[in-house]
């Protein structure tokens, strides 16, 4: 498939210190994606690059510390849906919430901050999780991409089984052609990767490897 680069975006999902070694919610092996993603950005394959950034207020509802007697990684019901409770992470303005310094931000066109509502979590770069009204409010990312004339998106970052997955599936649901760059993601729970690949396939999300991306004069070849 040949992609018109002017209509194609690269989405960098939550490449933040708290999701990397030493962070509050570190994803095992997350550091391995940093150099290849930097190389991908510097190759200038994409005319549109968007980074997402968890940006939680202190006391966010997704933090286990916000619920008496609860511990990280427990699951509870929130607004009628299952909610994983996390360690405090990516608190707005802290070093843990910062995008990693290895990312050449001069190649990033926009940053979408999510999880800013203290009462609602937000895994996806496109829509928040369900609120008390049973709705998933938009973050503005879909509108931004449509204004840029984007038709397809390549997704990478952290974590594969949460924010990458939700972002990719939402993008597909919203009408974009979507591919997850599998080797440029890592999972919180790698044991579930086979099930995850099947779920992405069910959503018409392609799974590719970064080595299959190549630059041509016309655009990108997958």
From TrEMBL:
A Pfam family recorded for this sequence: Isochorismatase
Gene3D superfamilies noted in UniProt: Isochorismatase-like (3.40.50.850)
EC number: 3.5.1.19
UniProt pathway: Cofactor biosynthesis; nicotinate biosynthesis; nicotinate from nicotinamide: step 1/1
UniProt keywords, alphabetically: Hydrolase, Metal-binding, Pyridine nucleotide biosynthesis
The keyword Metal-binding appears for this protein: yes
Sequence similarity: Belongs to the isochorismatase family.
Name this polypeptide is given: nicotinamidase
Species for this entry: Steroidobacter denitrificans
Lineage start: Bacteria, Pseudomonadati, Pseudomonadota, Gammaproteobacteria, Steroidobacterales
């Amino acid at each position: 498939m040949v992609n018109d680069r002017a209509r194609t975006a690269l989405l960098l999902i939550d490449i933040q210190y708290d999701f990397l070694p030493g962070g509050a919610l570190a994803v095992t092996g997350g550091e391995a994606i940093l150099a290849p993603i930097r190389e991908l950005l510097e190759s200038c394959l994409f005319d549109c690059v968007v980074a997402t950034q968890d940006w939680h207020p202190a006391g966010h509802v997704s933090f286990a510390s916000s619920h008496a007697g609860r511990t990280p990684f427990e699951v509870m019901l929130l607004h009628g849906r299952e909610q994983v409770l996390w360690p405090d992470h990516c608190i707005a303005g802290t070093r843990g919430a910062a995008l990693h310094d290895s990312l050449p931000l001069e190649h990033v066109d926009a940053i979408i901050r999510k999880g800013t509502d203290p009462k609602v979590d937000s895994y996806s770069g496109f829509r928040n999780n369900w609120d008390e009204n049973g709705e998933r409010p938009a973050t503005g990312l879909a509108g931004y991409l449509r204004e840029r004339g984007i038709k397809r998106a390549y997704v990478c970052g952290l974590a594969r089984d949460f924010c990458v997955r939700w972002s990719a599936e939402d993008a597909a649901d919203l009408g974009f052609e979507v591919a997850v760059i599998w080797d440029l993601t890592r999972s919180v729970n790698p044991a579930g990767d086979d099930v995850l690949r099947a779920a992405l396939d069910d959503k018409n999300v392609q799974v590719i490897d970064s080595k299959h991306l190549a630059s041509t004069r016309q655009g990108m070849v997958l």
